[in-house]
Amino acid sequence: MLECIVTKFGGSSLASDEQFRKVRSILELEPTRRYLVPSAPGKRFDGDDKVTDLLYVCYNLASTGKPIAEPFGKIRERYLSIARGLHLKIDIERELDQVEAGIRIGKGRDWCASRGEYLCGLLMADYLGWRFVDAAEGIVFHDDGRLSDSKTQEKLSRLLSDGQSAVIPGFYGAKENGEVCTFSRGGSDITGALVSRAVGADVYENWTDVSGFLMADPRIIDGPAEISSITYKELRELSHMGASVLHEDAMFPVHRAGIPTNIRNTNKPYHPGTMISRNAPQEVSVPTITGIAGHKGYTVINIEKNMMNSEVGFGRKVLAVLEEYGISFEHMPTGIDSMCVVVKSDSLIPHQEEVIRRIEELVDGQGSVSVMDQLAIIATVGRGMVHNCGTAARLFSAMSRARINVRMIDQGSSELSIIVGVNESDFEATIHAIYHEFVG
Length: 440
Ligand code: ASP
What we know:
Elements: E1 5-9, H1 17-29, E2 33-38, H2 51-63, H3 69-85, H4 92-104, H5 109-128, E3 131-132, E4 140-141, H6 149-159, E5 166-167, E6 172-175, E7 180-182, H7 188-199, E8 203-208, E9 229-231, H8 232-240, H9 251-257, E10 261-265, E11 274-277, E12 291-305, H10 314-324, E13 329-331, E14 338-344, H11 345-348, H12 352-363, E15 367-381, H13 391-401, E16 408-411, E17 417-423, H14 427-438
Parallel strand pairs: 1-2, 1-8, 2-5, 3-5, 4-6, 8-10, 9-11
Antiparallel strand pairs: 6-7, 10-11, 12-14, 12-15, 13-14, 15-17, 16-17
This protein binds aspartic acid.
């Protein structure tokens, strides 16, 4: 029996009064859904505005002394139409007036952006008859704008300790001096995770407009299979390679606290979605692979040096050069007297000449340095391949049958993923070959 569920609803789930009604019926289906974290209203249709985007527009106009009447009018209308459609009693006009005045008098960028969630939370709390808890009271940021994890846990759990059902707006918190601060875009997911941890939830439900994760990008594979269960570690590997539904930073608080996250679809409330957990549930048969994700736009720096293997500290010196230029490396397969470092091309390009010259100095005429760009990287991820023979053989045979040349191989140290580098022009064909080999 589940005791306590925290729900987070994304912008498209809160875009209109009709969506608010769906949210209420979802809550009524399961009375243990006792906390709700809303985003700001999102798009109702293609080409519509997201309230948060409009708030940034207002801030930018106000900060250059220009009028905000036009974009703020759109924001006002969005909230008024929800309030009217649901026959709410709350004086949302007054709240809107205060937000408009705040933007005009030059309140900070984060304060302005956060009002989308704040106003949405007020409407939702009124609609549900739940307590409204301002996130500025419970989510604490350091002076440099980073989240204070321990203070947040302490304050938020105290604020919510009475066990009363509550609405806590997503996306923002405040520094100890009261100044409002936001997470990066999509950050309401993080608020949901922090609330889940603070109340010790059994499940963190993240309601959006898709029924969870897919095994591959639907723009490449037609109707890919859905992922019903995945571990946090697998998801981290996939989302790093571009599979995104959830904000990356939303995984850590719940992962560490052992709380599963369930991705659900507000428009299909009976679909079980994807369950993300620390250890996948006992399964009758674990699929060999859980998902495939990849990206174009990588460059490999190939370094060869005689006797590299016996030169203590060579790798460190190469990485120190990258560090100096603020370039983070993605993969680093090594041979005996060679190594290659894979980096994102756009982080290397501005410094490429100096970086290569510096590495050549390290090689000191006893080898060579070469650069190959236009590399795509594809990660095939699956807890099912740990201690399982033959997965790599199947993967590479499938690629060879499709006549794809493998330019780099890296097996993640966790044995949870096999990473291949191919020419960008082979990117889609590689995903097809791997997907059809393992999924059919
Ligand atoms: N409203 C914010 C954004 O659009 C935060 C969120 O929706 O999670 O990025």
